[in-house]
Amino acid sequence: MTGKKRVLIGYGIDVDAVSNWINTRNGQKADATNVSRGVFGATVGVDRLLKLFDKYQMKCTWFAPAHSIESFPKQLAKVRDAGHEIGLHGYTHEWFSALSGQQQRAVMAKSISVITSFTGKRPRGFTGPHWTSTPELVTILEEAGIEYDHTFMHHDCQMYYVPDGSATWTETDLSKDAEEWMKPMTALKPSKVVEVPANWHLDDWPPFQFVPTQPNTQGYVDPHVIEKLWKEQFDFFYREYDTFVFPITIHPQVSGKPQVILMHERFIEYVNSHEGVEWMTMSQMVDEFKSGKFDGVTVEGGVEL
């Protein structure tokens, strides 16, 4: 593409702190050493990231489980008072895919209440813990008046109105006749919620966070490898699109480590060497999209049955 470039880029910081470690889902006791990693993130990690963003004069979106706000109010007050956005991320980093409809609504209501009380304004955005979701999630977001989501992956560099969750599909069940599952997905229909797309390949957790019980986490990847991965994604989008979004997801207990902070500095400076780059919060991205100042896409798929 050869037009004038405009790139909306920003960090989404998941302040999981202790919450993701105590979200054992079955009441199993949490490991105290893992909890200490969460404390590091909420204290040392938050302070280091605030210093990083201040250095580059950036405002970001911090998705904070309500448990983190209630457990580390002084630290989250630093985020709030620095002018960053605070968005929804569950109460105790609950995987929404494991919750009933009633539980999802209860967690959403409590989290909205905590953030509204803490910041003085209702949160505008949500990101699903562990990026899990349910068919009713988007409806719950609409009911709660949430304007945007950062959970789904229908696109990787364009905003869109996320499908409303009404589409259905049939999972394979080998205990049944094949005819039972050989059916197409039904049509996707847009909701009123804007999607700022999530992307596992722009997330610091899998490569940099060592968790012995989770085979999808590595912990010892050379930051220069991930820096190259991020740069190559940016380079492709910059070559192929005149306008695109580039949301990055990080965690203070991961990106607060020295080697990862240095990677972020190098990446920020690389991105800033390009014309048309604007660092902003996800709410600001959504404002540009909803006002018609920034293009997006329409997600299509499925068939009418």
TrEMBL record:
<dbReference type="InterPro" id="IPR037950">
    <property type="entry name" value="PgdA-like"/>
</dbReference>
<protein>
    <submittedName>
        <fullName>Glucose 1-dehydrogenase</fullName>
    </submittedName>
</protein>
<keyword id="KW-0961">Cell wall biogenesis/degradation</keyword>
<dbReference type="GO" id="GO:0071555">
    <property type="term" value="P:cell wall organization"/>
</dbReference>
<dbReference type="InterPro" id="IPR002509">
    <property type="entry name" value="NODB_dom"/>
</dbReference>
<keyword id="KW-0472">Membrane</keyword>
<keyword id="KW-1003">Cell membrane</keyword>
<dbReference type="GO" id="GO:0016810">
    <property type="term" value="F:hydrolase activity, acting on carbon-nitrogen (but not peptide) bonds"/>
</dbReference>
<keyword id="KW-0336">GPI-anchor</keyword>
<dbReference type="GO" id="GO:0098552">
    <property type="term" value="C:side of membrane"/>
</dbReference>
<dbReference type="GO" id="GO:0005975">
    <property type="term" value="P:carbohydrate metabolic process"/>
</dbReference>
<keyword id="KW-0449">Lipoprotein</keyword>
<feature type="domain" description="NodB homology">
    <location>
        <begin position="32"/>
        <end position="237"/>
    </location>
</feature>
<dbReference type="Pfam" id="PF01522">
    <property type="entry name" value="Polysacc_deac_1"/>
</dbReference>
<dbReference type="InterPro" id="IPR011330">
    <property type="entry name" value="Glyco_hydro/deAcase_b/a-brl"/>
</dbReference>
<dbReference type="GO" id="GO:0005886">
    <property type="term" value="C:plasma membrane"/>
</dbReference>
<keyword id="KW-0325">Glycoprotein</keyword>
